[in-house]
Amino acid sequence: MTTPALELRDIHHDFSGLQVLTGVNLAVAPGERHAIIGPNGAGKSTLFNIISGRLRPRQGRVLYGEHDITGVPPHRIARLGVGRSFQIINTFPRLTVYQSVRSAVVSRRGMRLDAWRLLDGLDDVARETTEVLNLLELTDRRDTPANALSYGEQRELEIALTVAVRPELILLDEPTAGLNAEETHKAIGLIRRVSERKTLVMVEHDMDVVFTLADRISVLHYGKMLASGPPDEIRHNAEVQRAYLGTKHSVAGADRAAG
Amino acid sequence: MRRNVLIAAAIVLLFLMPFGLDTLRLRVAIEILYFGLFAVSFNLLFGYSGMLSFGFASTFGVGGYAVGLIWKHLGAVPLPLAVVMGALAGAAVGLVIGFFCVRLRGTYFSLLTLAFSQFLFAVALKWRDVTRGDDGLTVTPPDLTLPGGLVLHMGNALHFYWLALTIVLISLWLAWRFIRTPLGNAALLMRENDERAAFLGYNVFGTKLIVFTFASTLAAVAGALFASFQRLVSPGALDLQTGTEVVFMALFGGTGAFLGPFLGTAAYILLQNWLAKTTEHWPFVIGFLFVVMILFMHTGLVGLFGRGGPVQRLLRLNRTPAEEPR
Known about the structure:
The complex is a heterodimer.
Chain A: E1 6-15, E2 18-28, E3 33-37, H1 44-51, E4 59-64, E5 67-68, H2 74-79, E6 82-84, H3 97-108, H4 123-135, H5 151-164, E7 169-173, H6 181-194, E8 199-203, H7 207-213, E9 216-221, E10 224-229, H8 231-235, H9 238-245, H10 248-258
Parallel strand pairs in A: 3-8, 3-9, 6-7, 7-8
Antiparallel strand pairs in A: 1-2, 1-4, 4-5, 9-10
Helix pairs in contact in A: 3-4, 3-5, 5-6, 7-10
Chain B: H1 2-16, H2 23-48, H3 57-73, H4 79-101, H5 106-126, H6 128-131, E1 137-138, E2 144-145, E3 151-152, H7 157-178, H8 182-199, H9 204-230, E4 232-233, H10 240-253, H11 260-278, H12 282-296, H13 300-305, H14 310-319
Helix pairs in contact in B: 2-7, 2-8, 2-9, 2-10, 2-11, 3-4, 3-9, 4-5, 4-9, 7-9, 8-9, 10-11, 11-12
């Protein structure tokens, strides 16, 4: 087997004694689109924060390819090629869409500490920024400050910032949270496009999105991985049905979504 | 293109301005120059990077003490060189203070900068052998011989004005340029959302420390000019009042525009001079003004008179109400 793009080994975490993660194991293959699902409070966001360096796990290791990134600060993990988005909009409120994405592009090109060249005169940066804006269909909003965007557009900017650093591993934390059906549909296409030939790990509540996009699904249930496998297998897993997908009704809903 | 011509014209005007001023007013102009630079450097930290320092006077004072000590112990070092050395001293102190402060955010950051400035104030006050304590350190800038044989006399307000203007303009240009580089852009990210910047690969601590150090360096330049002009530097240069005055001057002018703090300084000093002549209760008026500013004018004078501000809107409304944009 090839080295996983991302591997979690026996991750434990607690908040002042409250056990949130109790031995999570996960392996994500390179190029895979992997969804983590689970009820509220299952520890999904905590897991994301641990992978991206926001939190250091009490126990266990996080491996990104060959790198052990357990407890490594976020900016170092980002520079290794891990990009993450946030469940709650987390952008630069008073910067325009263009300025925000350009900041990510500048970072990708390793020019963060350049104190000499003028930013406006850097044509490559401008070109690359425009490409990202085109990819995310944000071009006509380029001069709008982030805090003046509609909620759906802010979600797109959230993804734009994440992919503008050209990560090999993309972590999306509930990318469609709060979107209506039409916006969600658009977001699915968007996520598919930006995760082309990359590894994607996403936390998502919307089963439509999960069963449409994911190659593999892991179910997190009260701090442990209940199951991990291809969508079909998860859908018919008795334990998952009992714990999470719950009633026959919602499983049927998931079936419909996948079809 | 047109803008460059305007800037060039403004600079020429500034160099010619002393011919229209008596010595007393010229001295006020010089004061505006170095306090203006001080306020702009403060705003690099506050307006651009979101770090509100209440102890920013510490590096201003360090710049002043540095040139004073240089001339006392090293003899007739030319003023520009002494100012550069003072700037380096400010950078060193800024680096150390910043190392401890920039890890903190918001109120904690502000309070720790305040603590450091109080500490330096105590040092300036008590380390009498070096600083001469309360009496203050006499600062004796030597006359400067320019290439070509022209001599600038430091005791001559006109000569000092030209020299100070040159140094302040260079410093302002450096600051203006800085915020347009990728590093200056990173400073904006620190203000807007440092956490998200970290997830994009920005080193938050490193970026803030560099900005803090750079702003401190420019503040030391301002302090060096201040001490050279006053020919004296005392603990008052780095006390709490100097540290809060710069906050007020920057806010007064407007922290959202590059030159806002500079204009705020000019307005503040002119107003203060005028008030002091008019009434002995001038601190009351200044204090009242500050309260009004904080309550009703967050964007300062620039916001009041600048593009899209209430004053311009009012004027336009009177002229052509139909053409009101939007």
